[in-house]
Amino acid sequence: MYVAHVVVTVLAAVMAGFSAAVLLMRAEWIVRALTDYRVPRSWWTWLGLAKGAGAVGLLVGLFVPVIGVLAGIGLVLYFAGAAVTVARARWYAHIPYPLVYAAPVVGALALGLAA
Fold it and tell me: Residue of 12, 51, 57, 88 with fewest CB within 10 Å of its CB?
């Protein structure tokens, strides 16, 4: 169970870190999406930093479990908020994207509790 927890946690951290990096680097496809979803440009850096902090928190959580749990909860809330933002913008076909990023975080939290 422990090995599965580590693997899923690292996967979740890599995915959240990738998501943070493309936002902070202002990749064209993410800028277009955030503009379509009407997310204020002034929020973009803070949102990217929040995802990056969550990714680091998941990795630190492998050694300090409470940090991992808090980071996981924060990321789940972040990606749930992203799904709501996409729905409010009426881009219903894009709702699965933030949920794909949330899924390994939920898995990491569940495996962490089971381990």
Answer: 88
Q: How far is CA 109 from CA 9, 66, 69, 73, 91, in A?
A: 8, 11, 6, 8, 29
Alpha-helical (H) ranges within 25-115 are: 28-36, 44-60, 65-88, 96-114
Q: What is the pLDDT of residues 20-39, one digit of tens each?
A: 999 999 999 999 999 999 99
* Residue of 104, 99, 108, 56 lying closest to 78 (CA atoms): 99
3-state secondary structure of 89: coil
- The structure's pTM equals 0.93
Q: How far apart are the C-alpha atoms of 7 and 5, rounded to whole Å?
A: 6
